[in-house]
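guanylate cyclase structure dump, as promised
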Amino acid sequence: GEETWEKLRVQAGVQDTFLTFEVYKDEITMQLIDKACKMLDVPPDMVLKQFGEYFFEFCKRSGYDHMLRTLGGNLCEFIENLDALHSYLSLSYQEMNAPSFRVEKNKDGSMHLHYYSDRRGLFHIVPGIIGAAALDFFNTEISMEIVNQTEEEERTGKKEHVVFLVTQKPIFSYKKRNKFSSSSQYLDDSQKQIEKQLNKETMNKIRDRTNLASVCPVKRSHWETIRGVVTLGKGKLLRGFDPVYPKTLWIDTKTLCNGLPFHIVFDEELRVKQAGVSIQKIVPGLQTMGIRLDHYFSIVHPEVTFTIYSVQKFINSQFVFQTRREMMPQSWRQRPMLELRGQMIWMESLQCMLYLCSPLLRTLHELEERQMHIADIAPHDVTRDLILLNQKRLAEMEISNQLERKKEELRILSKHLEEEKKKTEVLLYAMLPKHVANQLKEGKRVEAGEFKECTILFSDVVTFTNICAQCEPIQIVLMLNAMYLRFDRLTTVHDVYKVETIGDAYMVVGGVPVPVSTHAERVANFALGMIIAAKEVKNPVSGNPIQIRVGIHTGPVLAGVVGEKMPRYCLFGDTVNIASRMESHGIPSKIHLSPKTASIPHQLFSTCLLPSMGAGSIPCQWSLLAMPPSSSGTPVNHHPQPPRPVSTCQLPEPCWWEERLVMGRWGWRRMDPLS
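structure tokens r here:
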């Protein structure tokens, strides 16, 4: 699946996508195979065979189904024409480095498949491809066994030569067996009628050929039997076909050389005996009969040495010749060399080889580069049509390639856009609550909401004005940044919402925007963490740890988004004012609590009166420590030693408070300054 491929791709260190017309190194394939073997715990030959089967299905889905089906009427013909298919595909995929195949038939019906390739280590793909093609196209199961593996010495470019023994076993499904059985009955009746019409001599020929055909273990289907019956003469039906040849050749030499302008006849010593007029025009040296063909041409495909033995060995392959630059006329030496593609035909009676060929040209541009014209190619030669059709095909492929590249660029841009979008969301969620930010992204209006109870915290730095007056601005920025980074981490730990920072003031709320019942405890524990974290930040003037004041109040608020240019999530109500007053009238390194907030369990506090705007005087409390029980039930935090005996409450009217142990817990008791 996709997850396995992604894991395999990451381990192999290869890119995510591959373009159709792009050439990739075989090292990428071998890396993927190596990692796949380790992940799946299977041998490499099994992975390559499965890849071959998948590649065959991929080619069918890519539009080559009909092309593959028409390569041959049986498996042997199919394999023999694979080189011709690769030659045709090289017109479109010019950098394709395809393997080469050669088939040797055996008397027992099996065959030896010779595989040649200079791409080492990929020969296990062949059984997968050939096996899938045999099963799909010819309804035949095959077994392929490696009988030899060497480095071919005769070939100049191909390094790996593997010989497979291919054995075929036809498969007949239930439906096909029924169809064949019913058809065989029909054929039997028809054959009886045919036998009545045939004379005794013809019947003997049919019986002889039938006996010869029965030696082959591969059964012929009824369609092959029907194709073998042809009408000949006056209504007589004969099985097979015997060609008729004239007693004399009714074509003169001049007409042959003009009608086949690209052909060469050479003997066993590679000496030219005859050549077409167009090839003589391009290579004038061929007008001198008896010259050696290998002096003027080199073999490009198949990559064999230029000997009559090598040519006979690969006689079923398409041969591509290329002119040698040093033997061409002076006017041709600045042009690209001409390539010829065609087939070899051995003439046993003359002990000569006939090379029927055509110019190998892909586009009109290549035709112009060689200063040739369509008229130089014989009218019956399909190379004319191939050049014109391929010109259009190459233009379509270029458009397709550009679209594919644009698609890949868009995919990469989309991936980068998604990454930037995530960064933007992280930044946005740091400024606004997540659900509020999502509503704003969707273009919706965010309605103000009322929260019946929440806990608000304010803090500031003691003597911050004096510190600013004695320090450089950068020192203030570094100090506040160090402190706020620690506070921000605490908001994540205690799950409280940071509202804003103004100068040295830090505002936090619990229970907004997501209501929770433990908002007061969360803010109180956050406040205790602030006191400890602030001691880690140094005062740039004195070098001592800075001190902060903290004020907390619990009550109802109204929350909503204010502004469009730089929208902020703000809180409104008396709860905000009271929390701010609690902080401004606090004591350094102490937490000033309101009565509602004092309901937090395990909180030590003392009571005092604090004047509030529009609310008269309200009682307030000093928090000393919090002792939330751990999972084991024991306190996590504890007061290491009794606080100092006397502290001062900085209220508009100075009062004195004494810290002492009352009923098993430390608290504050008001003292008379005169006592």
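The radius of gyration is 46 Å.
lmk if u need the other ones
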